[in-house]
Write a structure and sequence with these properties.
The structure is a homodimer of 124-residue chains. Chain A has 124 residues and is mainly α. Chain A contains five helices and two strands; from the N terminus they run αααββαα. The structure holds a DNA duplex (30 and 30 nucleotides).
DNA sequence: TTTATTGTATTAGTAGCTTAATACAGTAAT
DNA sequence: ATTACTGTATTAAGCTACTAATACAATAAA
């Protein structure tokens, strides 16, 4: 997993997105123990405070739960994970369409470009 | 045109994106005179300096040219505009696929979701 | 010639993000 | 009991983005 950050956006919110993705994609399973704040901060090469802030967001969403002395674990609720996954995907689709339409592309052109990209990726 | 900004990203780079989109989508035609920095700053409700910074970026790309005393105009080169438009679209497609794959979606699922979204938008 | 408008530059102040260096309280393992 | 690890909180510093308030030179219009 790469920990590449855009210069254009706050690192803590990029950390939220990365961790969200790792959880809903199954990289971390329900109930899995997560690495500690300090450990993950070293891995991502960010300050522990920044990682802490990202985790606070994830906890607010319910994706992780915190046990003050034993560390953090991924939620045991697969339905919640699945729900978040669908919502993130839906957001991506909506955002993608909005941007393409702003550029003046039609629905047909968008689906065509998408199919092309899909078949192009098949051969890699 | 809405001038809504994310809190999560610098305003000047969002201004660049918006102006880029307005130009390549044909909202401003090749050779069109653009509103002045001060005028656009009022319209977008940002500081003139911030708008100025956005324009500097656009000029670096060649999309607009500056005449120090008469104002700015959109490039007369339709090929450049078309090229930028295609590049922006291509970036959107690539970025969309990357995000969806990170969530664990397959090519088939991505194209299916895209088609659904397209047909859904037809009926609105 | 005067006036208004253009882009551009400068300086200062505010706010948010990030890092750094600590410190504290609770728990598991030894 | 001691040790090591957990999450959490605090304070200070540096950096960038943004706003604000100007000022200047060049041109078009009156």
């Amino acid at each position: 997993m790469a920990w590449n950050f855009d210069n254009d956006r706050p690192i803590y919110s990029q950390l939220v997105e990365i961790l969200q993705t790792q959880i809903v994609s199954g990289e971390y399973k329900p109930g899995d123990k997560l690495p500690s704040v300090r450990e993950l901060a070293i891995t991502a090469a960010v300050n522990p405070n920044t990682m802490q802030r990202a985790f606070s967001e994830l906890e607010r969403e319910g994706l992780v739960s915190t046990n003050r002395t034993t560390g953090r674990t991924v939620t045991e609720d697969p339905a919640l994970i699945s729900e978040v996954r669908k919502e993130l995907a839906s957001n991506h689709v909506t955002c993608f369409f909005r941007k393409m339409k702003e550029l003046g592309y039609t629905n047909e052109e968008i689906t065509a470009l998408t199919s092309e990209a899909a078949t192009r990726e098949e051969n890699e």
